[in-house]
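Re: your question about MarR family transcriptional regulator

S., sorry for the slow reply, the queue was backed up all week. Below is exactly what I fed in.
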Amino acid sequence: MSETAPTEAALSHLLHRAVQAAADLHAGLVGPEGLTPRQFAVLSAIAFAEGSTQTQLVRATGVDRSTLAELVTRLIARGLVSRERSSADARANQVSLTESGRTLLEASRPLAAEADLALLSRLPEDRRARFLKDLRRLVAAPEDAGADKPRKKKKKKKKAERATA
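Result:
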């Protein structure tokens, strides 16, 4: 039978599987003491804009606010980042790399690039740039469509209104 299983046809499921494959490749290269892809992304964002607030990091990485706060707490515990109140806004926390964080990030860059290449090598070379461009478009799509805004709950009709409708 040549039919595709429903899970193999569902876009969100395929994207999830691709993320799993990427994470597995990454983990195999960096080892248990290395950075996860998400940690690598957050440390890279901090290195790019040192002293960013956690809100700025949420925007830069796409990691939700509570997950980012927990991740930063774990990175602090590992001695990779420091967090302090912003001098411009006492409600905001600024995050900076420690020397250990900078060292680990720099050591991780070639491994992350190797993991990326290992995953991309599953595609024909002439399709890789287009694939990355399309992924960037998909990542931007939820923001463009307002998906980052909370959905309004539909009001339920009262029993009496339903009975007369």
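The chain has one domain: 10-144. The helical segments are 6-9, 11-30, 37-48, 54-61, 65-77, 99-120, 125-144, 159-164.

Happy to talk it through on Thursday.
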